[in-house]
Design a protein that fits this description.
Strands 4-3-5-11-6-12 form a six-stranded mixed beta sheet, with helices on both faces. The chain folds into two domains: 224 residues, D-Maltodextrin-Binding Protein, domain 2 (3-Layer(aba) Sandwich), CATH 3.40.190; 160 residues, Periplasmic binding protein-like II (D-Maltodextrin-Binding Protein, domain 2, 3-Layer(aba) Sandwich). α8 packs antiparallel against α16 and α16 runs antiparallel to α17. The chain contains 17 helices and twelve strands. The protein is globular. It has 441 residues and is α/β, with parallel strands linked by helices.
Length: 441
Amino acid sequence: MRARTRTASRKAVVLAAVVSLGGALLAGCADDSGGGSDDTSGGGSGRTTISMGLFGTQGFKEAGLYAEYEKLHPDIKITENVTERNENYYPALVNHLTTNSGLQDVQAVEVGNIAEVVQTQASKLEDLSKLSGVNKSSWLAWKWQQAMTKDGQTIGLGTDIGPMAICYRKDLFQQAGLPTDRDAVGKLWAGDWSKLVTAGEQYKKKAPAGTYFMDSPGGLLSAILSGLKEKFYDSSGNVVYKSNPAVKAGFDLAAKAAQEGLVGSETQFQPSWNQTIANNKFATMACPPWMLGYLKAQSKPDAVGKWDVAAAPQAGNWGGTFLTVPKSGKHVKEAEQLVAWLTAPAQQAKLFSVQGSFPSAPAAYDLPQVKDAKNAMTADSPIGTIFADAAKAIPLQPIGPKDQIIGAGLGDNGVILVTKGTSPEEAWKTATKTIDNNLEK
């Protein structure tokens, strides 16, 4: 979901891509190249205009939610100001919050930035936990926790999440002598990411010529780290990525896969990586819901139906967004009511059915738009059920203000080097040196 600086190249990639979720768009949680905005002039005589500050394709307009809300509230008009790339959107948002000026009535915040906003800008944002009809039990506990301050205020309501699964090519698995049934495939690596690498070793023995088991070492590393109970920061907010044995173990496992030639050598979301999708160069990829849209956008038509989705070795989250309401907005009360409505289970389910943004509200999982969701790219696999099961098992993971910098450093300036011949030890040293230099800036 993005072509941006490597500090955010994993968790927020915009998908302006058509996917077969009922023939609709499947969009992700952040950005792409380019930019644009909707008209934010007045809402007409007697109408209150609520302005939405967003990054990428959030999908509210595309899913018809604005139109539905305006029909329910004839005195309200909703407009969007969209910055396609979160790397451009977020610094501007921080500047506006710091100066307490130039803010929209509603401002979106990507999951990789929410910790920094909570820690440094909470005083500029409304406590949404006090809204009528808003109950934290309506959200996954870990999602609600991510936007909550130490004193119990909730400055953002969650929209989508990115529960982890593994997408795989059934035809390539069959040619390599591996099972193709999604349940049997999931059992190959159930409970342990190292089993996924073992499956890759089995694949390599009979791999179709010119193919890798997995798309990239960075993608594998992101997936492994997404499910840790503690990753780059501890619960007290201390940076622990270098001393956390689970992070180093994940890095070493991805490096092993790179050394053994099980993964491709391209950096995700770059043109060269996109080409490997188009040319059917790999058999698996870490696959949160939004990745299905990216997969569709980059694939050739003959790939439709050849993919399937299996459970990941362990549950994890990759992506997501929150909606916040600045205290200095022109229409705070109206904006709060809109945010509460947009993030309610029924609206989250509608958003998923059109945009593929997977709900953070568990009540949405039993609604037909989610429960019965199918995807032509993955042979009509029951993606709603698969991702719902994954979402329910995601652990609460502390997020720090510089999570994106650390994650990108380990992937794009670290484990990727192993595919070029660098030893895992040197790759780790290079990554940590780059990260520490960036953290000091």
